[in-house]
Every structure is written in C-alpha cells, then in structure tokens.
Design goal:
CATH class of the largest domain: Mainly Alpha
Largest sheet: 2 strands, parallel
Strand order of the largest sheet: 1-2
Number of domains: 2
Oligomer: single chain
Helix content: 40-55%
CATH superfamily of the largest domain: Photosystem II 12 kDa extrinsic protein
Shape: elongated
Order of helices and strands: HEHHHE
Number of helices: 4
Length: 90
C-alpha cells in the first residue's frame, strides 16, 4: 500500500471511529425514553441496554424513579449512570 493510500485509509478510519463514538455517547435519539411506557424495540435502542435487560425492564414495571432501575438484574451503578440521561419515568 502506498503512503498516500495509507494516510487516506487512516483518515477515514479516524472519521468513522469519531462518528461511532459520538453516536454511542449521544444516543440514537434526542429525547429520553420513558421506561414505563416504551416498547421493547425502543428500550433496546437505548445505549448500554442489552435486549435481555430491556425485557427485564418491561417485566419489572412500573418504576417511580430512574434510580429504581437498580432493582433490574443487569443494571448496576455504572450502567445506571451511563443510561441516566437517556431514560426517564415521566
């Protein structure tokens, strides 16, 4: 691979990685998801929530506060802090 092609490939890789990081941090949507009313598909789209945790959230409804998500198996303090701005109970 020549030097110019390598630089272009690295540049595009960095751009893609940056876009992915932004998507991961910003989430797929703009508004927080109401965990008491959201569909499985919507909960599954919340960053850091796996399909099995999304199902457990649905099974454990209702929640009076976001902090009550800690009662869901698979959500600990670290995960709760990551998802806090992406979810609501209102």
């Amino acid at each position: 691979m020549n030097s110019k092609r390598l630089r272009i490939t690295l540049f595009l890789g960095i751009i893609c990685l940056g876009a992915f990081a932004f998507w991961l941090v910003a989430g797929r949507g703009g508004s927080p998801v109401n965990v008491n009313t959201a569909s499985f598909e919507t909960l599954d789209d919340v960053p850091w929530l796996t399909p099995s945790v999304a199902r457990k959230i649905i099974d454990d409804r209702p929640f009076n506060s976001v902090d009550e998500l800690l009662r869901v198996s698979g959500i600990g303090e670290k995960t709760l802090e990551k998802i806090r701005r992406h979810v609501t109970v209102d």
